[in-house]
Design brief:
Layout lengths: L1 E4 L5 H12 L9 H10 L5 E7 L2 E10 L1 E2 L6 E9 L8 H15 L4 E5 L2 H4 L5 E2 L3 E2 L8 E5 L7 E4 L7
Parallel strand pairs: 5-6, 8-10
Antiparallel strand pairs: 1-2, 2-3, 3-5, 4-10, 6-9, 7-9
Helix pairs in contact: 1-2
The structure holds coenzyme A.
């Protein structure tokens, strides 16, 4: 399995993979594949990594800029992240997330947020933080990983591509 940045010819495979992966996922509204397309169209895919096995895209993770009410820049949102259902629980999602976080840090990011299950994401260093909030979600599912210890925090807004 190889992880690399997406190429233009991967777009259709990423769309299909994301749609399939989220089809039966809890808390999904079934639009995650459209979010990836909109982020790409808007030039907001700061990082878009694919996992490739035998020439097929089997996993994908997207990172896009988020806004924080404090005005602080350098923060990104992780997601959507998808692995082909037949190949889940083999470490592909973890490998994509670890590579993405490492690449983000090299880009000079200050931190990363996501909406997800703490039971999964705490292994990558994500945790809930009362100083960083996302409207209308249970705070224990909105998680952050700071790359630098000093940040102001505030209310987070994802890229408009998330909202259709
Ligand atoms: C979430 C996802 C990307 C993880 O990829 P993966 O390749 O299956 O994950 P890994 O093999 O790296 O990690 C497997 C571990 O994650 C756990 N895990 C996977 N998805 C989880 C979830 N949604 N909640 C909690 N734990 C989860 C597994 O129980 C397993 O834990 P273990 O190592 O303690 O046994 C993949 O399951 C997926 O595409 N799910 C559908 C789409 C989705 O829900 N995306 C994330 C939305 S926040």
């Amino acid at each position: 399995m190889m992880i690399r940045p997406e190429k233009p010819e991967d777009a259709a495979a990423i769309h299909r993979l994301t749609e399939i992966a989220f089809k039966d996922a809890p808390h999904s509204d079934g639009t995650e594949h459209l979010i990836v397309d909109r982020l790409r169209m808007a030039g907001a895919l700061t990082l878009s990594l694919v996992a490739v096995e035998a020439g097929e895209v089997v996993g994908h993770v997207a990172f896009s800029p988020v806004q924080i009410s404090s005005g602080e820049d350098g923060w990104y949102g992780l997601g959507p992240v998808s692995v082909l259902p037949a190949l889940q629980r083999q470490g592909i999602g973890s490998a994509l997330i670890r590579q993405g976080l490492s690449d983000l840090s090299v880009l000079g990011a200050r931190g990363c947020v996501l909406l997800g299950n703490p039971g999964y994401y705490e292994r990558f260093g994500f945790e809930a933080d009362p100083n960083l909030t996302l409207a209308d979600v249970p705070p224990e599912y909105f998680l952050r990983k700071a790359f630098s210890p000093v940040y102001a925090g505030g209310a987070v807004t994802y890229h408009p591509g998330f909202y259709g």
